[in-house]
Design brief:
Protein name: Macrophage migration inhibitory factor
Structural class: alpha/beta
Organism: Citrus x changshan-huyou
Pfam families: MIF
CATH superfamily: Macrophage Migration Inhibitory Factor
GO cellular component, one term: extracellular space
CATH class: Alpha Beta
Radius of gyration: 15 Å
Largest sheet: 4 strands, mixed
GO molecular function, one term: phenylpyruvate tautomerase activity
Number of domains: 1
Helix content: 25-40%
Distance between the termini: 27 Å
Amino acid sequence: MPCLYISTNVSLDGVDVDPIFADATRAVAQIIGRPEHLVMVILKGSVAISFNGNKEPAAYAEIVSMGGINREVKRNLIATIGSILQARLCIRKERFFLKVYDTTAGQAKAASKL
């Protein structure tokens, strides 16, 4: 089950977050290759974030998945989630950081050493 956790310093008060959840869920499912009903998205606003020494709109996100992650998938996730945040919350792509975890990556390396 992929889980995308997004934190932003943008206030979400009065923002219709449903399109953000829908777009992010669809994007993660398509890019990683998992069904939408297995994708979890968490969105937290009004988080104290300073990026490049200022508090202009910015976001930090983490995605955890059991498999399905490679270099191309990472690039696509960064570009697509960045585009969603820019379109929906006016966060410029260069003020967005995504950390990607594949929980099976260590298992594959350990299994290959056996």
